## 1
Amino acid sequence: MGPWRTLWLWFSLHRVLRAQDSGLVQAQSQPREFHSEKFQGVWFVLGLAGNSYKKQDRTMLNPYTTVFELKNNSHFEVSNSMIRGQRCDTWSSLMMPTSQPARFTVDHGGCAGPGTNIEQIQVVDTNYTSFALLMSRRQATDQPILRISLLGRTWTLPPGTPDKFICLTKEQNLTEDNVVF
């Protein structure tokens, strides 16, 4: 059984076993300090949830990597790559820090006018060495878009990390149908 099927099996079993448990650990609202130099490097996207994702989207998305490269000790150049069929899709962006720790903005540009395609990204929780939880919000033409990413430095996560991901998705009113990996 591959790592993705194992992860999905774990999420499914976990959901069934914890469905009646109201004592889930609350995800942190944000780190009080953020160490950009420790955060940079290669991360694997091990979980992804969002209000614009549906079950049918699962077949379109594959595991992918994200590289955060710190530039001038202030912003991150972010490079992503995903295998789709016989090709490798890549995309990149710049994450600019805000005045609050662990919060960034990304300007995706566009024709709709200044400021209409700005994404707000928050590192909700990380230990820098094995996992990170990111949440992003962006206003689309018809609705706000929310995305939560579970990142890992390797394919294995520390105990309790998937619980934090599930808890954060529930706190944001997302369901199992909104989780695509």
## 2
Amino acid sequence: MRNGDVSFWYRDIGGLPGKRPALPGDRTADVCIVGAGYTGLWTAYYLKKADPGLDIVILEREFAGFGASGRNGGWLSGGFAWSREKYLSTGSRDGVREMVAAMMGTVEEVIRVCEAEGIDADIVRTDEMRAATSAVQWERIQKDFAAEKAWDVPAEDIHLIGAEEARARINIANVHGAMITRGVARVQPAKLVRGLAGAVERLGVTIYEDTAVTGLEKGLVTTARGTVRAPVIIRATEGFTAGLPGLSRTWLPLNSAQIVTEPLSEALWREIGWNGHEILGDGAHAYCYAQRTREGRIAMGGRGVPYRFGSQTDVNGQTQPETIRQLTEILHRHFPQTKGARIDHAWCGVLGVPRDWCATVGLDPDTGIGWAGGYVGVGVSTSNLSGRTLSDLVLRKDTALTRLPWVNRKVRPWEPEPLRWLGVHTMYRLFHMADRQEARPGAGPSGLARFANALTGR
């Protein structure tokens, strides 16, 4: 089994890419973007489409798609993973509804761009299936469904199915029912980010790789290779933001890891089903996420060991043995049929988590520095909305996107260490304890999870 090598998704396309040239020295630009992941690339794409004359430079420490954009679970969901109520502090109820609708629209927008630019990312339109594997999970999912309906989510977008129908879709052990969300898609993440990088280059954007940013301030980005002076600077570093000077407490880099099986036999797939290629999650507090890949593997992800002290990040995607053990246990619990299947690859990455667990996008008019991130795990679709919004903000357009309640929203920083480490690890330990309690026959909802969420502001 391989561990690391950035992610399995690169192995799937023949290995890690060669790096583009580094910044050759000092230069100027109209817009300098730090980070060549989905956020930075989408921002460059929409800016160039709106104003082809802009001189746009992207600086990347490793290579385009090295971070979460090339390591994620491949969920193009358009999902709203944050508290709607928290966004009411910076917007109205109608504004939050508009943000939800804008998020849902990202799925078709990403597919449209991929078709227009000839990007083959193994995209399959499908449903999201959030399955309950205990009575308590099923009760929680039904409450979540009611909450979605209370926010006027259309009936054609979400519905509940019982155990029999859920099992007919995907034969998950002990399934009690599921919530189905329509209009999502499965993607191959590395194919998407590499294709997008090629598309922005064809538009005239310059991507410098192997160029580590060491500082940014009004009008100036400093790197180990030289400086870039630009009136607009976009920080598109998401889970790696804590590594920039002065930003160690802005967004917490939360670990997320995955394993992938060998290609399963046709006999196994007949037992499991999954013919609709749904993106799959469960109703646990320490939840998992999964997809059936193009070549018939199961990619299973979850948090594992959630956070490294001091906001440290992994080395080339290598994850801990304990994380691999936990993910394999989840895989076998949901799909006992796979116990004889080989695990081919394991890897991890980081996602950005703000103190209130709600994503933001913005541009400071005084400094010209913009940002987007804090996606909390739904960055494949959210980054597209970020890119379109940042493009409008940079071009000083007053649009429906620039008026959404996540724009220019200020969030307090995370606590210093060791409080940060203690808080996150305590939260996930309590989540795991709550899941074990709720799995017992006749158990009710555990209060431990509520305490964990209150502890960390989740």
## 3
Amino acid sequence: MKKIIAFLLTATIGYSIYHDITNGTLEVHSTNKTLQDNTEIETSPFIAIAVQPGDTVLSVVEQLQQAPLSASISQVTNDFMQLNKGTRPEDIQVGKTYNFPVYLNEED
């Protein structure tokens, strides 16, 4: 009986961690505006920043944001890769300059 309970507890914790890593716990807000004819225009600007020791893509984007991050982790990753010709976030190098997406708040 103890083994079954331990297995179920481990499975629940494992699923929770997987869900948190893949989907995040942040609310997802679109940075695209939709026109009346359903075409989207990109509204999120970017800023070029030289990477410092200890920086990650997410930490830099969070520093640029004045309020809680309004984009999901997967959206930040995809936007970063688009702005930097396919450079993956885990491949950034200290001292090099990269374009980081800036997400506008609903009020901006």
## 4
Amino acid sequence: MLVKVLHNGNCSKSNAVLEYLDENGVPFEIINMMEEPLSVQEIKTVLKKLNQNVSDIIRKNEKLYLEKYAGKNLSEEEWIQVLSENPSLIQRPILIKGSVAMLGRPVENVKYFIDK
């Protein structure tokens, strides 16, 4: 089954997962979140597949987060809007296989996800 990878080319973890998939012959499609930001609806779909809340996929160490959003008490809907406008704040990579998804870190967890 084709694995979709929500990817940021500037992220070493994201690149490591692509390398792992490639080396192991796993067919995948790259969705570059920086060039093609996810819509609000796409983020909601990803969260459902991850079975997580929006707060679980926010990169809280990111400079933009620390300068602009740290300590803000935003609703789930507001955070989803922020992430659709600022894809650099989304944890990556996110792997999607059918109706399930996972954060691709650490890369060791990807093997289990692929084999499942």
